[in-house]
Amino acid sequence: MNKKVIRFLAVVIGVIVIITAANITMRNLVVSKVIIEVNYRSSDHIIDRKDIKHLILSRFGNIDKKKRKEIDVEEIEKYLGTQNMIESANVFLTLTGKLYIKIEQNIPLLRIYCRDGKEFYIDHNAEICNTVNGRAANVLIASGDINEKLELGQIIDSIKEPITHNVYKIAKNIVSRDILANQIDQIYYSKKNGFELLPKVGDYVISLGGTNDLDKKLNKLVYLYKEGFTKYGWDEYSYINLQFKNQAICTKK
Prior knowledge:
The protein is α/β, with parallel strands linked by helices.
């Protein structure tokens, strides 16, 4: 073996030794700082950094006192990703020993009040999410004869939870139309009258009945707000019936 080959092998072995030693040293370093960032994506704040810190503390202990080798970032990511109101989590360690935890919060679509006294958020993906004491999102409210059993984390099924699924469908349609999103405050369901909408301003009820032809019904309501109520106001009416084809019947007070 000539001298060049020997020198080359010596350099390679030296590099491997240095890298191995550096990795051992890095793995034994204590985490220098934990940085938690929450992206609310223009939604109201339902969770915050304290909530995330509490989740991690209860599951993994005080991670800012642990060595890097004791921290499984993939396990932390997976755990946080299964938690209520968290859309996704990205967890990684930097070379300087900082542990970053980046969270994307679920975007709540509506808040639903059930007959059994339970209340939940439903997000844009039709998932049932928990409410948080002391914090409330400015979203549509749904209430009435809603007796279906809802559990955290479940995705609403149109067969198993038809009423809640229809509430979700109505809410999605409302928020997709800016003028309705600004005008409608509540969705109310009753066995007798079906689905009704209650406005943020004004003392009148909007009747949808069932969810058949929902787009057409809400398009009529959009037209009323743009062309009818802007001219005549809504204070004169007590009931707006959208159930009839190609017409909206407005009952005066």
